Amino acid sequence: MAFRSCVGVVLLGCLVLASAAGPKPKGRKPVNPPVRTIAENERKAEQEAEITNDCPEDGFFADAEQCDKYYECRGGTIIEKLCPDGMVFNDYSPQEEKCDLPFNLDCSARPKLQTPIPALHCPRQNGYFSHEDPKECGKFYYCVDGKFNMITCPDGLVYNDKTGICTWPDEAKKKGCGAAEVFAFDCPPVNETFGLTHPRYADPEDCQFFYVCINGNTPRRSGCKLGQAFDDVNKKCEWARKVPECADWYKGQLTDAELEALENPPTPKPKPAGSAPSRRKPMRPHKAKAVEVDADEE
Ligand SMILES: *[C@@H]1O[C@H](CO)[C@@H](O)[C@H](O)[C@H]1NC(C)=O
Fold it and tell me: Does the Cβ of 193 fall within 6 Å of ligand 1?
């Protein structure tokens, strides 16, 4: 973007002047102290000329080198600003003063950043950060103003540093967090033709789950609905009572009545207030979406 670098380069010059005459710029000192050899009015004229050249409009402009630094041009003055630590300036529109988490912004042309202000579990004050233990593939921290929240990816997913979301281990490509490390499951060797059908196999440890072997060799764990089990003969999810080796899988977790209700949902009718206790509890989150840790993960 031509204007960005233009602004960045010339703004340094403007700042020198603005610091002497304009309203105090916040934060950093300009690189060079203002030179006091030019007469005040001459300098004012020069400043105005330069600013009308360099600030064609009021608004917010990215620094040419530092992704979290930007300038506000307002009524002919330029104010240097910094995003909160961990966020970067989004320069999609000069009318918007917007700092964002860096995931969808390209900072490659202006890679510098302010000095980090770390806090517990937060390498910077704001952002998503991997767990310190590289073996904790599915855990990460969400930091806001230096306060952390630990978040756990849904079962079988790995926190992906680059995108800030939970993804399949083979997509996250995180060292020590590959499909082989995350899943205690090896895809059985198959020929190439069969591999292309992405064969499915029951999870030997958990009746509700199964593995899809992408191209026959990369396992991804997937689950059946609550009350169902993976039928390894027919390669599909089926009500647990119909899968011989899993018929008792939900014993202790769900009552027969609850299982029956899952299989044949009662037709909704007006419910008398304060009737049967809620059946919601055993629901497990299966969406490919981050869920808060602690609470209902078993
Ligand atoms: C590949 O494997 C499948 C299943 O084991 C088998 O039915 C098929 O004939 C094999 N194809 C080739 C080309 O070997």
Answer: yes
